[in-house]
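User: Predict the full complex structure for these chains.
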Amino acid sequence: MELSERRKKILSIVVEEYIETAEPVGSKTVLQRGCLSCSSATVRNDLAALEQEGYLEQPHTSAGRIPTAKGYRFYVNELMKEQKLTAEETEQINATLSSKIEELDKLMSDVGNLASELTHYPALAVTSGTPATIKRFDLIYIDQNTFIIVLLLSNNAVKNKLIHLPFSFEEDMIRRLSAVFNASFTGIKDDEITTNLIVSTERSVGDVMGLTSVIAGFAIDVLSSTKVSEGVISGSENLLKLPEFQDPTKAHKLMSYLSTSADFNNLPNLSPSGDVKVLIGPENVAEELKDSSVILASYDAGDNMKGIIGVVGPTRMDYSNVAAKLSYIAEGLSQLLGGSSRPPTGFGKLMIKGDDS
Amino acid sequence: MELSERRKKILSIVVEEYIETAEPVGSKTVLQRGCLSCSSATVRNDLAALEQEGYLEQPHTSAGRIPTAKGYRFYVNELMKEQKLTAEETEQINATLSSKIEELDKLMSDVGNLASELTHYPALAVTSGTPATIKRFDLIYIDQNTFIIVLLLSNNAVKNKLIHLPFSFEEDMIRRLSAVFNASFTGIKDDEITTNLIVSTERSVGDVMGLTSVIAGFAIDVLSSTKVSEGVISGSENLLKLPEFQDPTKAHKLMSYLSTSADFNNLPNLSPSGDVKVLIGPENVAEELKDSSVILASYDAGDNMKGIIGVVGPTRMDYSNVAAKLSYIAEGLSQLLGGSSRPPTGFGKLMIKGDDS
DNA sequence: AGTTAGCACTCGAACTTCCTGAGTGCTAAA
DNA sequence: TTTAGCACTCAGGAAGTTCGAGTGCTAACT
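Assistant: Here is the predicted structure of the four-chain assembly.
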């Protein structure tokens, strides 16, 4: 059954008031907060009806109402007004983004910190790669025991490793290996680097010392590591300020879930690049999150990478505000990192790809 | 004045009992815990005396005694017995260390996690570099807009960056630049890369497109980044299980200090490589740590790098146990990473230097 | 001088009891 | 369908009470 306009309004007030105060909302409060032209008795009737329908619940008989997960969901879907960020907020986001954008290896944790600072909730930042191939293979001869492997990947990341071996080899051998690897190991995926391939490479170069397998091993490591998602959690201490986490046991449960078992490969299963997803209370799959809400926004991290930023908080979360902020950050990141439409941002900023960890 | 043997024993019992239970310790408890051949009245006299001397204090008149910072300090310096780790514990440490040692970029956070799991306290892991120089410069030409810079540093780390420019250049120019940089930019520190040096390099190669300054800029970035310390904090949620942090405000204060303002450059000012340092309560400089204790152990991370692992907890901390664990971890790390005495650990493990992030 | 038994005293923690008031649901009138 | 009126409920805080672990002190003992 469709809700009457007044009931929608009342539900909306209850949700917003409860988000703000964390206290059950009574008929009187609803009246004085919203500009309704009816009496408290009417509001009471409506509150009872909304409870009947499952949008609200009562902690105990003589208390006001608090929204249920269904109530929040309805609010988020139908009632919530899009919130505009203030000029300061957009300014702060812009500043952080542009100042941090050059240090790619720290980007993830910086983005997490930004999100958690802005929202005052624990924030997560995840980057998930798509399988890459090797675009270019280089071996740099250093001395008779040492050389460097440099890999340029299809996503334009550069990976390297210094190899130091207890036996010596010729510069020429390294040069030949470099050429052969460039010929046979480029453009293929990690599981295509088979023992057969390695053995045949070994033969064709005349490598009897196992250099080939060392190099191939590194290539496999690098390629398979492009597939996994990595993530960080920032600002979980923010939970402790919230009234719902005054009980240290609760706080501990959620925090240790976040810091240990939160697996980033699994969590954000659905998320079309660009928009925002809200998971309210029991909508979360993880048992530990059943009393919490999660808001996720995804962005295009360029180089075939997808990034997700998210925020974890109590179901009583300022959905509108948080969603606006995350969405703005994600948009900014997509613009700064996304491959196609990157605006030139001055000379130094042109060097934005790479791996300077 | 020197403490009598019995008073030492009593102090020791009070400290250990309080560490275990977090409850003020009374004369009766002391008696039944330790094998003292005297009556509770005697113990009471001694307790009063120890309080007089400043080793103990009373939360309120009708309660037992708890150790003061001075009491803990005396205990740590004089009374504490060195604790041997159990076989399982050393086993767990060894396993984690050897399984994790190949992923150098994640090592720090892994070590932090290990320490915090073992001790059940928040743990910090810091690596501080010593200023490095460039040992070898390589530029890899990719296409007319793109090349890779590869730097081999004096500490054997390899850094790289993909440079993509909006204008084109010749392969030969890149080759010449590579040679010139190898000649003039190796062996010098970051502040020796002056505008003069850049300009004269530019002239000598005939670079009119500013390639030189792009490359030099990257070199400066890399060299100056070797000087800073980086650190991570793991497992701060462990605080919430401790009785002294049941008050969420307290927990929040310490946790946000740890996650934000804890500056790793400053904290571990003194620490001769190898042994363990204990900072008790007010001995800490940071205001936020005055009620907590910190235990630090440093290790040799090889390549001229020093690492520190530490643990933060209440003054009521199991000093003996934590110190033993940290010391064991630090020792293991030094052995695995330290330059000189590295034992061969199988073929694959020989590739332990490098930067495969 | 150091140790012990005995005893009166203290005071926080925990458990009662009581009270208050915010908020309700219901009924009857508009 | 809305409203005014009213009796009812019940969590949470204030005040009072009890309980007992632990103390310090004194006086006797070794």
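Chain A touches chain B through 50 residues (CB under 8 Å).
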